[in-house]
UniProtKB/TrEMBL annotation:
Its main location: membrane. Residues 64-98 form a coiled coil. The chain crosses the membrane at residues 32-49. Pfam families: ATP-synt_B. This is ATP synthase subunit b, chloroplastic. The keyword Membrane applies. GO terms for cellular component: chloroplast thylakoid membrane; proton-transporting ATP synthase complex. It is a single-pass membrane protein. It comes from Ottelia balansae. The gene is atpF. It is found in: Membrane; Plastid, Chloroplast thylakoid membrane.
Length: 184
């Protein structure tokens, strides 16, 4: 420390104008230089540093406010999305339940329609069978009648004379014509 005080004391007497030099004693000159530089920095830089710190503080505060607004907006959007999700899930459940009941309804309708179609086909088949039976019976009747008629005509031809024969044939033709009209 003695060197430091000596350097202040040596400031009191300046060497003569002819001798100018540098003080190379680092321990003696360094604290003085540092104190001068710090004093100048504090005096002139205080305002600049305060302005820089205030600007930085304002930017940080505005960033925090923006972040809070974005956070609130994100929370609102999340709540809206959750509400929509619940609503869509509810609708999906309703569609699923309604869809199953609709499927069951369609299934029952299809079974009923198929049953009705089968019943109609069965009725049509029975009607067709009855018609074919009736037609076969009619054909057999006609064949039996025709054979009986031919047999009777054969018997009549051998027993009757030509005039009686002619009248009998005419009468039988008339009867056959009316019978044929009735059957058709």
């Amino acid at each position: 420390m003695k060197n430091v005080t000596d350097s202040f004391v040596s400031l009191g007497h300046w060497p003569s104008a002819g001798s100018f030099g540098f003080n190379t004693d680092i321990l003696a000159t360094n604290p003085i230089n540092l104190s001068v530089v710090l004093g100048v920095l504090i005096y002139f830089g205080k305002g600049v540093l305060t302005d820089l710190l205030d600007n930085r503080k304002q930017r940080i505060l505005s960033t925090i406010r923006n972040s809070e607004e974005l956070r609130r907006s994100a929370i609102e959007q999340l709540e809206k999305a959750r509400y929509r999700l619940r609503k869509v899930e509810t609708e999906a459940d309703e569609y699923r339940v309604n869809g199953y009941s609709e499927i069951e309804r369609e299934k029952a309708n299809l079974i009923n329609a198929t049953s009705d179609s089968l019943e109609r086909l069965e009725n049509y088949k029975n009607e067709t069978l009855r018609f074919e039976q009736q037609r076969a019976i009619n054909q057999v009747r006609q064949r039996v009648f025709q054979q009986a008629l031919e047999g009777a005509l054969g018997t009549l031809n051998t027993c009757l004379n030509s005039e009686l024969h002619f009248r009998t044939i005419s009468a039988n033709i008339g009867i056959l014509g009316t019978m044929e009209e009735i059957t058709n």
